[in-house]
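Hi V.,

You were right to ask for the full record rather than a summary. Here it is.
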Amino acid sequence: MAQYDLGPSTLAKEALRDREPTMWRYREVLPPCEPISLGEGFTPLHHTPRLGENWYVKDEGVNPTASFKARGMSAAVSMAKHLGIQTVAAPSAGNAAGAMSAYAAKAGMKAHVFMPKDTPRAFIVECDYAGATVNLIDGLINVCGAEVRKFIDANPQDPPIFDLSTLKEPYRAEGKKTMGYELAEQMDWTLPDVIVYPTGGGTGLVGMWKAFDEMERMGWIGAKRPKMVSVQAEGCAPIATAFANGERFADEFPNAHTSASGLRVPKAIADFIMIDLIHASGGTALTVTDEQMVAATREIAVATGIFAAPEGGATLAAAQILRDRGFIQPNDSVVLFNTGSGLKYLEALEDH
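Predicted structure:
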C-alpha cells in the first residue's frame, strides 16, 4: 500500500475549509499526480432516524458513475496517467468497470473491461458509451481476472497494458480510503460506534481502516475506532464464513450467487487484511439473504428517499439483525454505507 510521511504538520484540519468538495481536498494523503477528476467524493451523510435513532447513511450512489468505485478509479487512473500508461484493463462485477471506463475516457486512455455475461445491462451500456472495449465472460469475477491476465500477456505493447484489478496496484485503495476521511470530517472528527459495509473485494473496509490510522498520525483523531462490520450475501460469503470459523484466510466460495453483483466475489485478495481489521475493531462479519437485502433496499427508499443499490440494502438488513442480537446498542451511532445507486440494478430489484 502507498505510504506517506505523516505528522501534525502534514495537513491542518482547518486548511480543508476552503477546499473543493471532492475527495482531492485530501491531496496531501493521495497519490502525487495531477487528478483525473469528475467531481468524485464528499458524498452526503444523511441522518436517518426513521431507520435508527443515531443511524446514518453515507450515500455513495451520488458519485460520478453512481458508485464508490469512482473514488478508487479516479486515484488509480490519475496515477497511471502520471506514470505514462496509455491502456488499462480490469475485471469487474459492474461498477468498477463503469468507473474505469469513465476515468480512462477523461484521461484519453484506452480501457478494456472484462465482466460476467449476466452483469446488469446498465453497466455494459455505460462502459460501451465511454468507449471501452467490453468483454463478456462466461464465469464470475475471478474468471474475468484470469482473462485479464491472459489478455495482457497476449497483447504486449510499450508501455504495457496496465492491470487495475483490486489490490493489484496500490492506488484504488487510496481513493476509497477518502470515505474514512470524509466520515470523520462530516461527524466533526468523532468516528461512529459502528460502520456497516457491504463487502465484495473489500477495499472499502481496508481503505477506511488505513485512513483512520493516517488521521491519528496527523493528530486529527484519537485511537478509538468504530466496530467494523462486513456484510456479505448468503450466496457468496467467503469472508463471513472464514470469520465464523475462526480462520484468517478465506477459501473460494463455491457456487457463488447473489442478485447484488457487487457482492458476488467468491475469492477476495484482501481476505486476511479484512479479517484482521474486523477482529482489531471488535467488529463482526455476517450474511443476509437476497430477499432480506432487497426488502431493506425498499425500506431505505421509503424511510429516507435514497434509492440504494442492493448492496446498500444489505447493510440495513445486517444492522437490524445486529440490533436484535444486542451487538448494536440503542445509543450507538451507526453508519450504513450505500455503495451505489439502485438505478443500475433495476432487473435485480424487479425480480424480487
